[in-house]
Amino acid sequence: MLQVSVYRFNPETDAAPQMQEYEVETGGKDLMVLDVLEMIKAEHDASVTYRRSCREGVCGSDGLNINGKNGLACITPLSDAVKNNKLVIRPLPGLPVVRDLVVDMSLFYAQYEKIEPYLQNNSPAPAIERLQTPEDRAKLDGLYECILCACCSTSCPSFWWNPDRFVGPAGLLQAYRFLADSRDQATDERLAKLDDPFSVFRCHGIQNCVNVCPKGLNPTRAIGHIRTMLLNRAA
Amino acid sequence: MRTISFDGVIVGGGGAGMRAALQLAQSGYKTAVISKVFPTRSHTVSAQGGITCAIASADPQDDWRWHMYDTVKGSDYIGDQDAIEYMCSVGPEAIFELEHMGLPFSRTEEGRIYQRPFGGQSKNFGEGGQAARTCAAADRTGHALLHTLYQNNVKNETVFFNEWFATDLVKNQDGAVVGVIAICIETGETVYVKSKATVFATGGAGRIYASTTNAHINTGDGVGMALRAGVPVQDMEMWQFHPTGIYGAGTLVTEGCRGEGGYLINADGERFMERYAPNAKDLAGRDVVARSMILEILEGRGFGPDGDHVKLKLDHLGEEVLESRLPGICELSRTFAHVDPVKEPIPVVPTCHYMMGGIPTNIHGQALTVDAAGSDQVIPGLYACGEVACVSVHGANRLGGNSLLDLVVFGRASGLFIEDALRQGIEMRDASVTDIESANERLVALNELNDGENVSALRKELQGVMQNYFGVFRKGEFMQEGIKKLDDLKERVDNVKLEDKSNAFNTARVECLELQNLFETAEATAIVAEARRESRGAHAREDFTERNDDEWLCHSIYHREGRAVSKRSVNFTPKTVDTFQPKVRTY
């Protein structure tokens, strides 16, 4: 029996959060962490609360802190997470808990919106698509694939300290996705809006974001590119 | 109960809903999207291979009429030709708009959008060989599309009610739809969302089956709400089983794999599709490929100790092609099949994937009902687009890459039509207190009941019945048995026990409400599947193995009241091209 410890907090009834213990029969199968949560909800306790949707690592709903590391429950196999037959599941750190494993993502989304995450191009659109070379398109690889799961930003001490002022790795990855797009014309305006002591420069290169990204993306590298662009702009 | 008012309310934040919302937000009308998940968690995100459209990039001679021909043929001739004509001809404009919004399509050397071959595609009305018509952003096209639409809605300041769950439609005394009842999941508050135009973009319901490529959230909420409000559904027997779901996990492996040159093999290592579809081979229609796979398995040529799956071979394409064209597939295969497709084939099995049926609509997204005389009647105030709608461009079998085109084109068309209708002025009587209360009855009953059965157990039972009795191959007597089992489930589902009565982020409550929607969807499917006594497209009967155009070259219509099934004519009158006459369908 797998020993599972789940963070519980119901704002209507609980003064403080607590860890609740469950024993789950996995049948020796290398299930995903989400499967274990589904079993707990179905067979042990219908009130256990978490988000989930695609169950294949593309929707970004089920970012959780699993045995101390942020990741997506649906693509984290027990064999990667469980130590000494123990699985500890907590909400993503650093954001307010709504209930159990569900966090309030408002601050995270606000940082995303702040970087104006949409293509800006005021020249008249052609009758067909705007052309882009495969080489220019390749510059977006490793950037556009972000699923907004928040695993990175909520593993980042700089984001914990300044979630309202530091854009955070997820937002900055998307900021660079548009800076790097040959079709976008707002580079100057985008950089001007990031050019303050907090938005970008609170990144201290700790690289927790890189270590936890379930899509294998590298926000630190993107942030480095933005820094260079900001410094070149100042020069 | 609090009332919130809008000009237009869109239920569902996937591709169709966000495309409709974008159109309305740009028009300046007061619009809101109600989505039970944050919009980028919607199931559109899982679409992989691409969006099919004759943009003439891969082939400068490509013609939307060829795409139309393929789609009509793919539908096994019960797709409405006016709707297919509209989708295929307007498609290029809709695709270029997406590109202008920023969608990061893969590119050709000329800098145009990359297009790959997909199943059922041809040049020159089936005479010119395989076409390459599916526009792709690697194998993450749905993700790229959904995020682009969300981003442009952010730009246009669309109002989102994220993590709100619509429970039922509100109708006034005239039978017009005047909004929905919705729960704010975070607080548990129930409100009446009043609207002059209510658009269902609630997606599919693949979770009626035990094995599905669909997200947990695909629970037929729009179908359930429609049926309970007396709105009929169309062609619900038509469920697509995707040939390549990963064996065991059910996760999707794109048809684009076969478009890029991959193929299916049986346990003898034979490329068996050459026998079933000598011309198109692995790129025949999905229904044809899925049935061929099942036959291989039934005839003892499956892999594994139980001989219950076949394999998709990709390794011959080489690591470079796989990592650049199909990176997401490599990732999914390693995670869920524990197989590296660069080195060995992926175990796959046909898996429930897409609901061709849904709420009947015209090309403007207006929901339709059929009156006693058999004529179409518009339901005032209600619209539908995307998977929940049956406009019908997919008929009895959808072609790969046509779902994303459907949702973009008809999300846009719904928005355009509603914008125009709002400009001309929409007058509807307000809902009375009784109207609102009656729409809220289901939720009240659920909250008050205390002695029912567990939601997960009931859901599992329902999924098992659908999987066993209404799968790829169907037979009258088995289906009748399946219907009896559903009859037994009906009251138990009505009385499902809500084990957690709290207010804050109560997902147990949402799951109970979803289960009831799943049941409505499943029951509609079962009744019409038993009623359609022929084989057409995805609906394959062992007791009626032939297509019967004399009796069934038509849509099925299902009314919840009395579980009545009727027939509705297919449109054979496109505006600008000649009718495509039904022919024997071979690939």
Structure notes:
The complex is a heterodimer of chains A (about 240) and B (about 575). By secondary structure, chain A is of the alpha+beta class. Chain A contains nine helices and seven strands, in the order ββαββαβββααααααα. Chain A has helices spanning about 35-45, 80, 105-115, 135-140, 155-160, 170-180, 185-195, 210, 220-235; strands spanning about 1-10, 20-25, 65, 70, 85-90, 95-100, 100-105. In chain B, strands 1, 2, 6, 7, 8, 9, 16 and 17 form an eight-stranded mixed sheet that branches. In chain B, strands 11-14-13-12 form a four-stranded antiparallel sheet. A three-stranded antiparallel sheet of chain B has the order 3-5-4. Chain B is an alpha/beta fold. Chain B has helices at about 15-25, 65-75, 80-100, 140-155, 220-230, 255-260, 275, 285-300, 320-325, 325-335, 400-425, 435-440, 440-450, 455-470, 475-495, 505-530, 550; strands at about 1-10, 30-35, 50, 115, 135, 160, 165-170, 175-185, 190-200, 235, 240-245, 265, 310-315, 345-355, 360, 365-370, 375-385, 390, 475, 540, 555-560, 565-570. The interface between A and B is large, with 56 and 60 residues.
Brief rundown of the structure:
Chain A has nine helices and seven strands, in the order ββαββαβββααααααα.
Shape of chain B: globular
Strand content of chain B: 15-25%
Largest sheet of chain A: 5 strands, mixed
* Alpha-carbon Rg of chain A, integer: 20 Å
Label the overall shape of chain A.
Answer: elongated
Count up the helices of chain B.
Answer: 17
Number of strands of chain B: 22
Mean pLDDT across residues of chain B: 97
| Class computed from helices, strands and strand pairing of chain B | alpha/beta
